[in-house]
Automatic annotation (TrEMBL):
<comment type="similarity">
    <text>Belongs to the glycosyl hydrolase 22 family.</text>
</comment>
<keyword id="KW-0732">Signal</keyword>
<feature type="domain" description="Glycosyl hydrolases family 22 (GH22)">
    <location>
        <begin position="94"/>
        <end position="112"/>
    </location>
</feature>
<keyword id="KW-0929">Antimicrobial</keyword>
<dbReference type="InterPro" id="IPR001916">
    <property type="entry name" value="Glyco_hydro_22"/>
</dbReference>
<dbReference type="InterPro" id="IPR023346">
    <property type="entry name" value="Lysozyme-like_dom_sf"/>
</dbReference>
<protein>
    <recommendedName>
        <fullName>Lysozyme</fullName>
        <ecNumber>3.2.1.17</ecNumber>
    </recommendedName>
</protein>
<dbReference type="GO" id="GO:0003796">
    <property type="term" value="F:lysozyme activity"/>
</dbReference>
<keyword id="KW-1015">Disulfide bond</keyword>
<dbReference type="InterPro" id="IPR019799">
    <property type="entry name" value="Glyco_hydro_22_CS"/>
</dbReference>
<dbReference type="GO" id="GO:0031640">
    <property type="term" value="P:killing of cells of another organism"/>
</dbReference>
<keyword id="KW-0378">Hydrolase</keyword>
<dbReference type="Pfam" id="PF00062">
    <property type="entry name" value="Lys"/>
</dbReference>
<keyword id="KW-0326">Glycosidase</keyword>
<feature type="signal peptide">
    <location>
        <begin position="1"/>
        <end position="24"/>
    </location>
</feature>
<dbReference type="GO" id="GO:0042742">
    <property type="term" value="P:defense response to bacterium"/>
</dbReference>
<keyword id="KW-0081">Bacteriolytic enzyme</keyword>
Amino acid sequence: MVQSPHLGLLFLAVTLVHSSEGHAKVFTRCQLSRELLRYNFPRALIPTWVCLIEHMSSRTTEKITNHNNSYSSYGLFQINNKDWCKKGRKGGNCNMKCEDLLNEDLADDVRCAKRVYDRIGFKAWPSSYSYCKQKNLPDISRC
């Protein structure tokens, strides 16, 4: 079987483009708990954060939610481009590109989520916080 040299180049190009993009990650509940602790979230609030993140983004970093009021929320923490980030360029109260919230590097996501929490608290995520207040929080004691 003879292969075209163009086919090999196409495969290489696709591979390089794919590997240069940020990769999404879906966390298990325990992985997420450990990451939050690693980034110095207060231990007593970890179950609430895990519940919020499960409800908002299903623990995936690539989640984008388009809202009817012409803005979107991005990433694990569902940070919106109305106030906190800007699509395609740095901006908002976190001075970051929203697209940077969609990869598995959580450092910038955490910085922004903590800024949101410090300014507004869990009220910044009203539907998820309301949901989590009415539920038993996740048991992460075995993590």
